[in-house]
Amino acid sequence: MNQVDMPKTIGQYRITEKIAEGGFGTTYKGEHTRLKAPVCIKHCPRISPEMDKILEQEARAVWDLRHYAIPVMRDMLRLKDGSSALVMSYIEGPTLEQIVQKKGQIDAEHVVWIIQRVLNALQYLHFHGVVHGDIKPQNIIVQPDKHMAVLVDYGLAMVKPRASDANIGFTEIYSPPEQVKGETLLPETDLYSLGMTALFALNNNERLTRQKKLSSKVPKAFREFLTSLVVRKTLDRPNWEKADLIAVYEAMRLKAFGRSHSNMKQLEWP
Q1: How many angstroms separate the CA atoms of 120 and 185, rounded?
Q2: Quick check: 138 and 93 in contact, CB under 8 A?
Q3: What are the tens digits of pLDDT across the range 49-84?
Q4: Checking DSSP bridges between strand 140-143 and strand 148-151, what pairing results, if any?
Q5: Which residues have CB under 8 Å from 245's CB, separation 6+?
Q6: How far apart are CA 7 and CA 12, in angstroms?
Q7: Could you tell me the pLDDT band of residue 4, with boundaries at 50, 70 and 90?
Q8: In whole angstroms, what is the distance from residue 89 CA to residue 9 CA?
Q9: Most buried in the list 39, 124, 137, 164, measured by CB within 10 Å?
Q10: Cβ contact 237:248 at 8 Å
Q11: Partner residues linked to 78 by β-bridges
């Protein structure tokens, strides 16, 4: 099945518009035909046991998880042609990548609260044994008016990955050495990717991001925290066992900006 013959209705859900297309399938906005409630539908047109396994792995990763910064998995459907689709809650808002593309470098205090929302999600995911495996600006949806951020796309996520579990993909610029080498995903893998994502938002420059450089205009305490995340050696990065990273982050935020919250400082969009 390709996009031109994608049915207008899948199960109890009606397709309303295409959102994005990626290596594992196409994402659509839809709605429940009876409730008229919006949903996000991820369809994989390739029919194979391997693709079914990938989609099932994504569904299982977050099926029972409930957190404000994680979408809710609602259904997994088999289409008439044998292909599969996932149905998730629809998250309104631009991606972090779209904001950077339109606005350029983002003010450091805005990056702080966006990253803090994702860090909270990671604490919850990692506690439940889930490693996201693909944190990048395209996979963070920001809701500027609510000061919310949601981590989406669990297509590369793994639940309690073992040493024998090789990761199935990555986005090179945001991925640490162990992931690029195809080694087992760890919580520290996500923390590295989160740090690189923050660097991109602060730089709006791929070259500087790859070099892990930041402007001196970014408060020193924030620069030091991010630098600690993006070191090459896994064991040299902070982790949840070494410290309460949420408390460390909040203390950094207070030191860097003189306050632990931004008082809903406005991030204009669009």
Answers
A1: 19
A2: no
A3: 888 888 999 999 999 999 999 999 999 999 988 899
A4: antiparallel
A5: 119, 123, 191, 238, 239
A6: 12
A7: very low
A8: 17
A9: 39
A10: no
A11: 84
CA gap 223, 244 in Å, rounded: 19
Interhelix angle 220-229/187-203, nearest 10 degrees: 140
Exposed, middle or buried, 248 (CB in 10 Å: 0-12/13-18/19+)? middle
> Domains in the chain, start-ordered, CATH in brackets?
3-89 (3.30.200.20), 96-257 (1.10.510.10)
Residue type, 150: V
Cβ-based neighbours of 49, under 8 Å, separated by 6 or more: none
> What confidence tier does 24 reach under pLDDT thresholds 50, 70, 90?
confident
Q: Are 66 and 73 in contact (CB under 8 A)?
A: no
pLDDT tens column, 199-257: 999 999 999 999 999 999 999 999 999 999 999 999 999 999 999 999 999 999 999 99
**What is the residue whose two structure tokens read 């923050």?**
198
- The percent of residues in the chain predicted with pLDDT above 70, rounded, is 98
For the record, the structure tokens of 127 come out as 């506690």
Residue pair 217/108 in contact by the 8 Å Cβ criterion: yes
Sign of CA dihedral 224, 230, 236, 241: positive
Q: Structure tokens of 204?
A: 């709006």
